[in-house]
Design brief:
By secondary structure, the protein is an alpha+beta fold. It has a domain at 1-94 and 330-378. The chain is built from 14 helices and 9 strands. The protein has helices at 2-6, 10-14, 30-42, 48-57, 59-62, 75-84, 87-101, 155-165, 182-190, 204-219, 295-318, 332-349, 357-366, 368-376; strands at residues 109-116, 131-137, 142-149, 172-175, 194-199, 227-236, 239-248, 265-275, 281-289.
């Protein structure tokens, strides 16, 4: 992955961004401000003052790659730019970069998942916290892009806008229950993708039919049904979790089938969990899918979606401290969230077996050679 990212540098794709600042405020070059920010965040910076101070300390090194005609900008310059920078333009440049480095694999799982930036609210102006929908390429282990949810809307409107920017041809898109909407399913199919969508009570008729069907099918031991089953068992520190995946392609009984584009199967996942000294628990989840057969593909899609919490959201919170960020003015919170995702992708690009993202970020703070390798392919 490191060689792949080095072939297409982030600086090249950010260079096409339009400058949102007034002419009088363009003393420092746009690309210099952006690249100092990315490098500083890689090295451990969390705020505008951190970025300025890091830039001052590393100015001589930065001049190897950047022009810096007036030296290092002050922290207000960084803050002002990220307040003004249009998130969708920034997001398109990010997506352009990812499209050039992503190694396409047929059938790759692309989970879309939302996350609220907890401390981005602003009581004084009545602004609620920002919510972002992110796209994750599971085989590549990279963030493909993000879309901010409008304060007066929700994920249902953000997901189609994000899908339009992604290349999902021959990929399987997974979304939790919020994204289980007929128009979103149609959008995925129109873009030549497959889907695995979780079904809960926000689709009450569909959820009730799935639950009743699988309850009856289990009692009848799936007699006379075209179905597949696959089971996994995980053991860890006294916990045993058994997951049984069912995939059923016989759908004549499903009254709402025609509402969902290219719906070819339904699935159920039964999770049984046993922990020492605790009673066993069971959980059932239901899904609708375009994939007609291949229960292992279905299982991989479901598991890949669950993994987003650990590989993306957890890493951003624990390693990059995203949940503690108090940036909230104008576009600053959304834009800085994309900087964190760029930093995560860059570190994954040089990640070797046994490396953690946390240890790589620490090394980037100690040694600019790590940043050179990650950011500039040196």
């Amino acid at each position: 992955m490191a060689r792949t990212i080095a072939k297409s540098l982030l600086i090249t794709h950010l260079s096409i961004l339009p400058d949102p600042r007034m002419e009088i405020n363009r003393k420092h070059l746009l690309i210099d401000i952006l690249m100092i920010t990315v490098c500083a965040v890689l090295a451990g910076a969390h705020g505008w003052e951190d970025i300025e101070n890091w830039g001052i300390e590393k100015e001589k090194w930065l001049r190897k790659f950047l022009k810096l005609p007036f030296g290092i900008p002050c922290h207000d310059v960084f803050r002002d730019l990220f307040m003004r920078l249009h998130p969708e333009e920034f997001g398109k440049a990010f997506l352009s970069w990812m499209s050039s480095v992503r190694k396409r694999t047929k059938g790759e799982i692309i989970p879309l998942d939302g996350k609220t930036m907890r401390r981005s609210f602003d009581r004084a102006s009545g602004k609620t916290p920002f919510h972002l929908v992110s796209a994750w390429a599971s085989d590549n282990g990279l963030v493909l892009g993000q879309m901010a949810v409008d304060g007066k809307s929700n994920e249902i409107t953000a997901i189609p806008r994000l899908l339009e920017l992604l290349d999902i041809n021959d990929c399987i898109v997974t979304i939790d229950a919020m994204g289980c909407q007929t128009e979103i399913a149609k959008k995925i199919v129109d873009l030549n993708g497959d889907y695995v969508l979780a079904v809960k009570d926000n689709q009450p008729k569909l959820h009730e039919e799935l639950k009743d069907f699988f309850d009856f099918a289990e009692k009848a031991k799936f007699a006379d049904l075209k179905y597949e089953v696959f089971q996994t068992v995980e053991k860890d520190h006294g916990r045993i979790e058994t997951r049984t995946y069912y995939l059923v392609a016989d759908l004549d009984w499903l009254s709402v089938r025609s509402k969902w584009a290219n719906l070819n199967s339904v699935g159920m996942v039964v999770s049984n969990r046993q922990e020492r000294g605790k009673p066993a628990t069971e959980e059932r989840r239901y899904y609708i899918n375009t994939i007609e057969k291949g229960v292992r593909r279905f299982a991989k899609a479901v598991r890949s979606h669950w993994h987003v919490e650990n590989k993306l959201h957890w890493t951003l919170d624990v390693t990059f401290n995203e949940d503690q960020s108090r940036k909230r003015k104008d576009h600053s919170a959304v834009n800085f969230a994309l900087v964190l995702k760029a930093a995560l992708n860059l570190l994954r690009g040089i990640q070797a077996k046994g490396d953690s993202i946390r240890s790589l970020r620490l090394r980037a703070g100690w040694n600019t050679e790590v940043i050179e390798k990650a950011v500039f392919g040196a």
